[in-house]
Write a structure and sequence with these properties.
Number of helices: 9
Largest sheet: none
Number of strands: 0
Helix content: over 70%
Shape: elongated
Structural class: mainly alpha
Length: 164
């Protein structure tokens, strides 16, 4: 769930105290806390702006998605699509906070491919949507903050491309 939790559980499973290297990893993680909170605050405060920009990018690249017969055609389908954009953005913030991709994996990727396939949602479209969310998010962050957040978006994108 988080670097600190994982290191403690690993040491406990092995019936030992955390090593010096593990303690340094914890200190490093904790020292980045202010930056992690800053990234999460920026993404959370700009959720609507990010989702709207990501949708604009995606639908300009893939206009067939909002055309009659497309997966995001009509108010209801488009609203569901944008709801998913917000959900995945929120998952990225969980990852940034925890310093771990575990929540993204457990909540966002396990079963996602099957769900989208059963609904007829094209996975390449979801991958492209995640790229758009990443682009719309990172442009709002300072370089250091973008570097902190980027791997969590990349993990999500890669997970959408890889079969579960």
């Amino acid at each position: 769930m988080s670097v600190v939790r994982d290191l403690i559980l690993q040491a406990d499973d092995q019936l030992r105290y955390p090593t010096g290297g593990e303690l340094r990893s914890m200190v490093e993680f904790l020292s980045e806390g202010g930056g992690r909170l800053r990234v999460v605050r920026a993404l959370t405060d700009n959720e609507r702006k990010i989702v709207d920009e990501a949708a604009r990018q995606l639908f300009s690249r893939k206009p067939d998605y909002v055309a009659p017969g497309g997966n995001a055609y009509g108010q209801k389908q488009r609203a569901q699509c944008l709801r998913d954009f917000s959900w995945y953005l929120r998952l990225v913030t969980y990852g940034v906070l925890a310093g771990s991709t575990e929540m993204i994996q457990q909540i966002g990727l396990v079963g996602a491919r099957e769900m989208y396939n059963s609904l007829g949602v094209p996975m390449p479209g979801m991958v492209e949507a995640m790229r758009c969310i990443k682009e719309a998010s990172l442009v709002l962050l300072a370089a250091d903050d973008a570097a902190l957040a980027s791997p969590y978006f990349d993990y999500l994108i890669q997970g959408m491309q890889t079969p579960n």
